[in-house]
Amino acid sequence: MDKFSVILSPRAAKDLDGFSDAVCGRIARALNALRDNPFPRGKLIKKIKGKDSDFYRLRADKHRVFYIIEAGRVVVLRIVGKKEAERMIRGLN
Fold first, then answer.
1. CATH code of domain 5-92
2. Strand partners, 59
3. Which of 32, 57, 64, 71 is 20 to 30 A off residue 44, Cα-Cα?
4. Mind giving me the DSSP string for 49-92?
5. pLDDT tens, position by position, for the chain (93 residues)?
6. Domain residues of the chain, as ranges?
7. pTM
């Protein structure tokens, strides 16, 4: 199976800039795992049904990475803390 490319949206890149180097390292390792298999498995990745399209949430320590999959690419939309993630998901439904 081919590897997926991981693309950060401008908003996700801005989110990442706000974290410490240690947190960025943990998130980077989680994003590398998405290259091999970005589809739901176990407890770390969850498929979330949104208004416009389905998207996924990856748990990376105390942070959540929201992404969509399109044309062999993983597009990271946001990287937020757990509390903000819960508000985001509630806003979709």
1. 3.30.2310.20
2. 64
3. 71
4. E-SSSEEEEEEETTEEEEEEEETTEEEEEEEEEHHHHHHHHHHH
5. 578 999 999 999 999 999 999 999 999 999 998 888 888 677 888 888 766 778 899 998 899 999 999 888 999 999 999 889 988 877 765
6. 5-92
7. 0.88
